[in-house]
Write a structure and sequence with these properties.
146 residues, two-stranded antiparallel sheet, mainly alpha
Length: 146
């Protein structure tokens, strides 16, 4: 499994928006400045996130982007699937048309399927809210809930 810059930057952009929930729409230029992501590339990523239903875009001078759902309802898996596509996709193009050892291929495919399931389960268990809380703990900001 390889996560491209699109997946990395997209997750950082989502985390940036999650940390600013309730502040209204955030302009891509602000995300660009805080995260150090090329603004044109960031805009392409934001389009993908909007198409996936993870963010909403608001037009106009006071416009920008915001999460489409609460941070507790968006997982790292949601982001990566929207930006990267299937994790550990099986490449059936490697199979030769001859029926050489089909059981071997099936056993190896089961290994990859199991690895993908474990990775997806792990990533589905981490929300944007979890990442915000981790950042707050590491920066020494304590969040109190009543």
């Amino acid at each position: 499994m390889r996560i491209s810059s699109k997946g990395e930057y997209g997750l950082r952009a989502l985390l940036d928006l999650a940390q600013r929930v309730g502040e209204g729409p955030i302009q891509s230029h602000e995300i660009h400045l805080r995260q150090g992501i090329d603004e044109n590339y960031l805009n392409q990523i934001l389009i993908l996130l909007r198409r996936a239903g993870l963010i909403e875009s608001v037009r106009g001078p006071q416009g920008g982007h915001r999460l489409a759902r609460p941070p507790s309802q968006i997982t790292v898996l949601d982001a990566l699937l929207a930006l990267e596509g299937p994790l550990l996709a099986f490449d059936s193009g490697r199979d030769t048309p001859t029926p050489t050892e089909p059981l071997d291929r099936e056993l190896v495919r089961e290994v990859w399927d199991g690895a993908r399931e474990m990775i997806e389960r792990y990533l589905a268990g981490i929300t944007l809210e979890d990442l915000c809380q981790r950042k707050a703990q590491r920066s020494g900001n304590v969040m109190y809930y009543i």
